[in-house]
Amino acid sequence: MKKITYIILFCNLLLLGCSSDFLDKAPISNANEENFYKSQKDIETAIWSAYNSLYTLYGPESLPSFYGELMSDNAVSDNAAGRIQDYESFELHTMTIDNELVLNFWNNYYKAIYITNNIIASAEKLDFPNRDALIGEAKFLRALYYFDMVRAWGDVPLVTTPISITNAYAQGRTSKTLVYEQIIKDLDVAVAKLPVKTSQRFVGAASQEAANTLLAKVYLTIGNKPKATETLLKVYGRFSLVPYADLWNLSKKNNASSIFEIQFKGGVSNPYSLYWAMFSPVDNRVVTAWGGGYNQITNDLWNAYETGDPRRDLTIQNGYQTPNGSIVNVKFPIKWKDAKAPVIGLREASDNNFIILRYADVLLMLTEATSDPKYMNEVRSRVGLPAYATIGYPAKYNTVSLALEHESQVEFACEFHRWFDLIRTGRAISVIKSSSKNITITDSKLLLPIPFLVINQNPNVITQNEAYK
């Protein structure tokens, strides 16, 4: 299979820092209905833009990163990063409506959705080889984008046609029930149109198994465990669990566990990744050239690992030594470590991919859907740990649901799962209260605010989430 690396604009890759003109920054609105793609070539080019969106939407500074990890008991921000208010508001659940990161995240999703809407509408009017696969890929990506948004914001404007963002906002927010219905429709089409992974158009393209895995997660999120089980069993057995270290081995990308993986290529002239640079300690200049200080590890996560679990030391580095011999006591993620990456602008241009969906997720979701620990035990067996409720298993995880919560935390640590998982299972409020963060929140604070500028430009149409009124 020919491997194609996504084309990317450098500015798309680096959504870093905060601009000084926040109050003048409006949501994206310059797209219009005339920007349809007219030919097969146009659509094939456009699909690269759709995949390129993943670089920003799933980068180290992204909604999944900060909502999935920083809001949970897994991670904290580094105060020395100089971005205290916007970053710590995720960590401490002190979000305000003028948080620039929230506006950036919102805008980036709608930019990506606009691209997929154009691809789908244009491709459906044409007839050419691979048309169905392209439509399936676009619908998979659109479903992924809306799935992130509806979980983070609740009701959001649902746009499925190539209208401008301004016109989209004018129609107001759509109930999350209808948004989920559209996500399921998109994924049903994606499953029908996409090839299986072994026949995907290129390494990294969406596949039938990726669509089914995402669809199952959607079903779990809306509480439909029977449909989740049925869907997951279509993927079960098609992949395998590789050694944990291999998941981030630069020579073993797109391995037998990978279901959907964002493709990066190291080097200053390539679409490189920034996870290693930005998740290393801030301004360390020892571990990495500089260090972003994002998603530093809590003691809660460090202590969650069982004795002898190799995943801890493959996930977290506990401190580092400075040139003068002093020890800096900070825990930080090392899954995306790339010690040989070239440096550009004090940031490593790394070769690491980012896995959005992998086989362990299928297995743990099967346990969640069926309450059968046998699937979870496959994950534990891979790292040499005892099966649930057998000799040597931690007694404090005395129900399948608690055992699964623990297993998901240590298996997917730093991979943007934790807060999403806790909200899905109804455990977010109690877990964050009992963690070292000791934060008391209510159900209404589980959602992010609608950005101030979005409401300000549509005051009679777009309403604010309850906690931020």
UniProtKB/TrEMBL annotation:
ATP-binding is among the record's keywords: no
Keywords assigned by UniProt, alphabetized: Cell outer membrane, Membrane, Signal
One cellular component term from this protein's GO annotations in UniProt: cell outer membrane
PROSITE patterns cross-referenced by the UniProt entry: PROKAR_LIPOPROTEIN
Entry-linked Gene3D superfamilies: 1.25.40.390
Keyword Signal: yes
Residue stretches making up the SusD-like N-terminal domain: 21-220
InterPro entries: SusD-like_N, SusD_RagB_dom, TPR-like_helical_dom_sf
Domain RagB/SusD, chain residue ranges per copy: 316-468
Coiled-coil portions: none
Cellular localization per UniProt: Cell outer membrane
Similarity comment text for this entry: Belongs to the SusD family.
Protein name as catalogued: RagB/SusD family nutrient uptake outer membrane protein
Origin organism lineage: Bacteria, Pseudomonadati, Bacteroidota, Flavobacteriia, Flavobacteriales
